[in-house]
Specification:
The protein is an alpha/beta fold. Helices cover 44% and strands 18% of the residues. Helix 2 links the parallel strand 2 and strand 3.
């Protein structure tokens, strides 16, 4: 079976991301978590820091690998022979946005499919941008992120 790609900026990785990736690993035999560099976002962590955190989070799951790219996600997927992207959606706005991306990806890479997984109900309000903002104001974000991410956020604030 070809690998699937779960792309995102993951800045920072949240419990919602972890849930999505674990659920994808239950559906696919080979999952590549792709940390994509989004130059339009102000980042809390470097791409390398995000990759290292995600590798630590999933170190015990041999089905999950973590990589990064600066280019188009569809081009990366094609390059590694993946035929499926897995995207999470929390609400109708996410679905609309992801559908637009799907349509562009289908235009440039017709063989690439996208699977949308709805966020687990308990995690549907978790957003990386909210975590970044809370962290900026020295608020506790431990309910929203894995322990390693919380530790790294605390370190950044010092």
């Amino acid at each position: 079976m070809k690998p699937c790609v779960v792309p995102g900026s993951f800045d920072p990785p949240t419990n919602g991301h972890v849930d999505l990736i674990r659920r994808a690993s239950a559906l696919f035999s080979d999952v590549i978590v792709l940390v994509a560099n989004n130059s339009s976002k102000t980042s809390l962590f470097t791409v390398e820091e995000r990759v290292l955190m995600l590798r630590e989070i999933f170190k015990d799951n041999a089905k999950i690998r973590v990589d990064s790219c600066d280019g188009l996600v569809a081009a990366y997927a094609k390059h590694i022979g993946a035929d499926t992207l897995v995207r999470g959606t929390r609400n109708a706005a996410d679905y609309s946005y992801e559908t637009e991306i799907y349509q562009v990806n289908k235009t440039i890479c017709p063989e690439l499919e996208t699977v949308f997984l709805p966020a687990s109900t308990s995690l549907s309000s978790v957003r990386s941008s909210s975590v970044r903002e809370l962290a900026l104001y020295d608020m506790d974000v431990s309910l929203f992120v894995p322990d390693i991410v919380n530790r790294k956020i605390v370190e950044k604030r010092k």
